[in-house]
Design a protein that fits this description.
The chain is α/β, with parallel strands linked by helices. The protein contains three helices and seven strands, in the order E-H-E-H-E-E-H-E-E-E. The longest helix has 12 residues.
Length: about 150
């Protein structure tokens, strides 16, 4: 499924719509270069999950957690991680993915370690504000954009 947004606000709204449909155990894996809009998209996911919009890039923290009363969003940055040992050193395997949602920036670095049912989101800048967003989810969310 492909979506084109024309502003950061539209990107947040598209992600909010997706976020409202996520359920515990979902893993989002982003593909997209620096400045593509991955953190902006994650802000929308958090809003859709009912967690507010206070989302920042996990670049220096490796992971930011956004906790709600019923669900937590784990927001990872795997830019500097490329091996299973590196992934283990981040504590990645210690998180409760079964009961929460995760969003992974630079997922291509750890693709071989992600679960089979991972939802892949590619964000490509078309201009300063426009983004092409491709959601690979096995058709799970397609009806929401019909």
């Amino acid at each position: 499924m492909k979506i084109v947004t024309h502003s950061p606000e539209e990107t947040v709204r598209a992600a909010q719509k997706l976020g409202s449909m996520l359920r515990p155990g979902d893993m989002i894996a982003y593909k997209g270069g620096l400045g593509a809009g991955k953190t902006t998209f994650t802000r929308g996911l958090a809003i859709g999950l009912g967690l507010g919009d206070n989302v920042s890039s996990p670049t220096f923290a490796l992971v930011n957690e956004y906790r709600g009363s019923e669900i937590t969003l784990y927001h990872f940055d795997m830019y500097r991680i490329s091996t299973e040992e590196g992934l283990e050193s981040t504590g990645f395997y210690d998180y409760d993915f079964e009961n929460n949602v995760a969003a992974v920036e630079w997922s291509e670095n750890i693709a071989q370690f992600l679960p089979e049912n991972t939802i892949y989101i590619t964000i490509d800048p078309l201009s300063e504000n426009e983004r092409e967003i491709i959601i690979e989810d096995g058709g799970r969310f397609a009806a929401a954009w019909d």
